[in-house]
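In this supplementary section we document a worked example of the pipeline. Step one takes a protein sequence of length 235 as its only input; no multiple sequence alignment statistics are reported here. Step two produces a three-dimensional model, which step three serialises into structure tokens for compact storage. The input and output of this example are shown verbatim.
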Amino acid sequence: MGRLHRSPSASQSCFAAGFGCNSGPLRTIPRSQMAFTSGCNHPRFTLPWRTLLPYLVALHLLQLGSAQQRVVAPSLRVTANVGQDVVLRCQLSPCKDVRNSDIRWIQQRSSGIVHHYQYGVDLEQMEEYKGRTELLRDGLSDGNLDLRITAVTSSDSGSYICGVENADAYAEAVVNLEVSDPFSTIILYWTVALAVIITLLVGSFVIIAFLHRKKAAQSTELSESFHPHPPPKSL
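The serialised model returned by step three reads:
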């Protein structure tokens, strides 16, 4: 006995063909707004790729911007007195382990190497900074590039470039240091005061000498007025 096959209804046929089965005229749904999954009669609606492209480009640019590294330094000048220890601070942003990077602190006015750290080793530096600088390694894993200078002198005043280079890129920032000498300031004040005192003493001596000579001249004229010269003898 043969098996009966039920033909699909009109609504099912219309839906499978991608048409709207309403009492009104038939309407075709654009393919850009409708797609079929293989083996299933249910449609899946998708957005056109042209609509998503601007969002994908913006997301890519945002990721590139966030990945770009830079060095952040304090905007205020670092101050210290002669003989003190000072720490010049810098930090890599975004935070990243810099223990396997090339880190340089450079004196800006002379372009000399104040401290050079490369892949865990301290390298050559300027003669006047030998034994006086230390890169604080405890903070390298957090992206800190802090440098300690001990027993600063007046000649240490100036701007310093903090630069870091790794496989990704190179970045740098500038830190300003001002070293003042309170003893030299006191000596300067005393020098000025002594110069003023000496000037007053010299001026007073000149005035006194001038008055003394003037008084002596007046006394001579007065004595001559009371003792006139005798008349000359006649022959």
